[in-house]
Please model this.
Amino acid sequence: MRRGLWSSLALCVAILLLGGVGFWALEPGIHSLQDGLWLAFTTTATVGYGDTVPKTEAGHLLAVLVVLLGLAVLSKVTALPAALFVERVVEAKERQIERDLKRETLLLRNQVRGVEQRLLPFGEPPPHAERSRG
Model:
């Protein structure tokens, strides 16, 4: 799952870089790669500060593409760490349940042995002895 996080982050960076280069190439109001990256970031994050906006038809289409791809990847990037955290919590609870079950099993075994020991003087065979004969 951690590998998925790193690949998703790399994909997110790639989308931002390609979006930034695309905006820089397509939009006449974007004069630097830095401005293109800023527009790609604000578009991907759907913040929309309005300081730079796509004005051309091609820029609008690129913005739609950047939003759709960016949201999908950003959703995965934010979901994966949450899933890792939940997985750890669930595993810890499962380990605790296992420990509790082992402890309860040992207690029950000891109680059964105690009952067997109390029944032996009365000539009663232990219950597991009857089962092993049949």
